[in-house]
Amino acid sequence: MPELPEVEALVQDLRSRLVDRAITRIDLAAFSALKTFDPPLHSLHGTLVEDVTRHGKFLDINASGIHLVMHLARAGWVRWRDEVPALPAKPNSKNPLAARIVIDDPDTDTQAGLDVTEAGTKKSLAIYVVRDPQDVEGIARLGPDPLADEFTIEALAEILASEGRKQIKGVLRHQGTIAGIGNAYSDEILHAARMSPYKPANGLDDAELETLYAAIRGTLGDAVERSRGLAASQLKGEKKTNLAVHGRTGEKCPVCGDVVREVSFADSSLQYCPTCQTDGKPLADRRMSRLLK
């Protein structure tokens, strides 16, 4: 799933490709992906891209004051194409293409474009056409951006205090609490902070608060810097290469050499290092416990 660093890198890449270029048309190949009807999708045809920005994990293309907002969800992605087919994309349940944004290029005889795709059978990718990004409910409910100047250690302290005894892993992932952090980077942040994912949010002392704050800013900031200048096609590989524990169950922790362990849930899992994060104690995996009964 694309998280804050990948979406930020996509913004930088697409901004350099799209700003001051016209949108010729948008082909919708997955009708269920479009979540709005006013303004209509065709209102973007002939508009000029003014900027590309980000709201948490939402991608925002501002074209002549109309915003094309996308949430790539678990399996969505965007792919730049130097040349797209002349004929409009057609709906096809076997094709991962959800939408195609065709860009006018007056300097060539071909048309470039952006393919928005979603792999797998569980379709969660969402596309919105709005006059104001705040009209998208998910954006209106976002918490503070963890890389913004306003996200101070005092702001983090207030957030954690207000969340009570909720597990820190869930607090970091909740978009209405802190925007942009998902399953992967919450694992990475907690590993960098040497903190159990089950630790209560309001259970941190001053030193732990400082450590967690530094881990949030450092982990996300470093990922953004590593991704800077990379094309969209390179971002997934860059992310996977630099993860310390997430997605590395059974491998050695790069810090201490212990085996990375996993806790499974209904639709996700978390990874952690027992030595670095839980004083060497494995966390209870209720799903596995039920299977072993």
From TrEMBL:
The keyword Zinc-finger belongs to this UniProt entry's keyword annotation: yes
CDD domains referenced in this protein's UniProt entry, alphabetically: BaFpgNei_N_1
This protein's UniProt keywords: DNA damage, DNA repair, DNA-binding, Glycosidase, Hydrolase, Lyase, Metal-binding, Multifunctional enzyme, Zinc, Zinc-finger
Matching SMART domains: Fapy_DNA_glyco, H2TH
Pfam families documented for this protein: Fapy_DNA_glyco (PF01149), H2TH (PF06831), zf-FPG_IleRS (PF06827)
Keyword DNA repair: yes
GO biological process, one term: base-excision repair
Residue ranges constituting the FPG-type domain according to the UniProt record: 244-278
Catalytic activity: Hydrolysis of DNA containing ring-opened 7-methylguanine residues, releasing 2,6-diamino-4-hydroxy-5-(N-methyl)formamidopyrimidine
The Formamidopyrimidine-DNA glycosylase catalytic domain, residue ranges: 2-120
A molecular-function term among this protein's GO annotations: damaged DNA binding
Cofactor(s) listed in the protein's UniProt record: Zn(2+)
Record-linked InterPro entries: FPG_cat, FPG_N, H2TH_FPG, Ribosomal_uS13-like_H2TH, Znf_DNA_glyclase/AP_lyase, Znf_FPG/IleRS
Family from the record: Belongs to the FPG family.
Name listed for the protein in its UniProt record: Fpg/Nei family DNA glycosylase
Species name: Nocardioides piscis
